[in-house]
Amino acid sequence: MAELQLALDLMQLNRSIIIAKEAVEGGADWIEVGTPLIKSEGAEAVRALRREFPGRKIVADTKTMDVGGFEVEIMAKAGADIVTVLGLSDDSTIEEAVMAGRKYGAEVMVDMINVPDKLARAKQAAALGVGYICLHMGIDTQMKGEAPPVDILKSIVAEIPVPVAVAGGITAANAGEYVSAGASIVIVGGAIIKTGDIRKSASDVKAAMNGAKVDSSLAKKYTEDDLFAAFSKVSTCNISDAYHKQGVMFGILPQSLKHGQRMVGRALTVQTTNGDWAKPIEAIDRVKEGDIIVVDVGGAPVAVWGELASCSAVVMGAHGVVIDGAIRDIDDIREMGFPAFARTVAPCAGEPKGYGGIGIEITVGGQRVRTGDWIIGDESGLIVVPKEHAVEVANRAIDVHEREDRTREEIRRGSTLSKVNELAKWEPVKRFAIPPSIRTARLYTT
């Protein structure tokens, strides 16, 4: 029977204890003190979880790379049953960790994250006396949409004598597949800790491990083929948070959106001049299903797009239009449900002179846009995601969106946003204080 290991990859110890209690009630067997939790709270996190769960195995995910003996000693004395060491570390580090574990009553799990030849290194680690091998796809790798390493798992299970754990992107939808491939420990983090109902999420994963079919899109990782669906699930706010505030088109406002409507698609770029609507209209003939026509007019005030252009674009399958300049006929465009973003609205249109180009690199709202880049718009604003970063940004945005569900649930239970995030505790250390006289003086200095 495979064990379900809960990965507490959080900053806050109090939140982690509450989540762990609910997960254990839902069927979690082992409790992992995640690397972020150890880095934020230290060995005290291990001690606290050992006190709360005296009958459960506690895993300290230190990801040790050096001084293996010392770090195993620290975690074992704090109450850890298992301590992780990176497979990329030197053999002597693993050997020291194993010997310290024997001395202080802990086993060593070797984490194979980023190891090039995982099978060869697993054999070497097993020969050094480790208790477990962990086949781990890191979060940053998951965000790129790489396929789960099921075939590698099967080969390792077939050739080494120690139990194999799996971690990284595991959900109720795929946990059973890993157990069928031979995993003895299934490590799940986000698919449990991000949810409002921790008990049910843990129970669903456990059921899947036991052979049940569970339909779940939670914590799913999307590929290039799924990007429209992925970006349609998240807001521009989620994307901005995930993309470190990059890509936001400032000053380009939603002019025709109905409440709750979103615009998602790939850019077809156009450059033109004030009032010259020839190239924007010609671009409609090049639209592929799902394209968004993005027009650089340099912020000029005479409209280059209106209701007839929108009607034509809808027929061709366009998902919207973005104009760094003026648009008109907004009432008609809104009525037809066509998403339109523009810097301003004006009743006057210019003449079709034909200046500019189609499919070239442009600048809109202060952001570079190329044909094929992803454009996402909603009532909060507009953002562009370069096509080469789209898979990773989409997956990270979904992760942001899903994590908010857990925060929302804790607020509903009576907490506050400040308390959930422990803001007072985690404010940056103020190394330099600005005297009030200087702060005031700056207000009046040009």
What is the gyration radius calculated from CA atoms? 27 Å
Name the beta content range. 15-25%
Nearest-integer average pLDDT: 93
Q: Indicate the low-confidence ranges by residue numbers.
A: 440-446
* Sheet with most strands: 8 strands, parallel, barrel
Give the helix/strand class. Answer: alpha/beta
Measured distance between first and last alpha carbons: 71 Å
**Helix fraction by DSSP (H/I, runs of at least 4):** 25-40%
Read across the widest sheet, the strand sequence of neighbours is 1-2-3-4-5-6-7-8
How would you describe the shape? Answer: elongated
Q: Give the beta-strand count.
A: 18
Helical segment tally? Answer: 20
SSE topology:
Blueprint: E1 3-8, H1 13-26, E2 30-33, H2 35-41, H3 43-52, E3 57-64, H4 68-78, E4 82-86, H5 91-104, E5 107-111, H6 118-127, E6 132-136, H7 139-142, H8 150-159, E7 164-167, H9 175-180, E8 185-188, H10 190-193, H11 198-209, H12 227-232, H13 236-242, E9 253-254, E10 263-271, H14 278-284, E11 291-296, H15 307-316, E12 320-327, H16 330-335, E13 340-345, E14 357-358, E15 362-364, E16 367-369, E17 374-378, E18 381-385, H17 390-412, H18 417-421, H19 423-426, H20 436-443
Helix pairs in contact: 1-11, 4-5, 6-8, 13-17
Plain-language structure description:
This protein is 40% helix and 20% strand. It is of the alpha/beta class and 446 residues long. An 8-stranded parallel beta barrel has the order 1-2-3-4-5-6-7-8, surrounded by 8 helices. Strands 9, 10, 11, 12, 13, 14, 17 and 18 form an 8-stranded mixed sheet that branches. Strand 11 (291-296), helix 15 and strand 12 (320-327) form a beta-alpha-beta unit. The protein starts with a strand and ends with a helix.
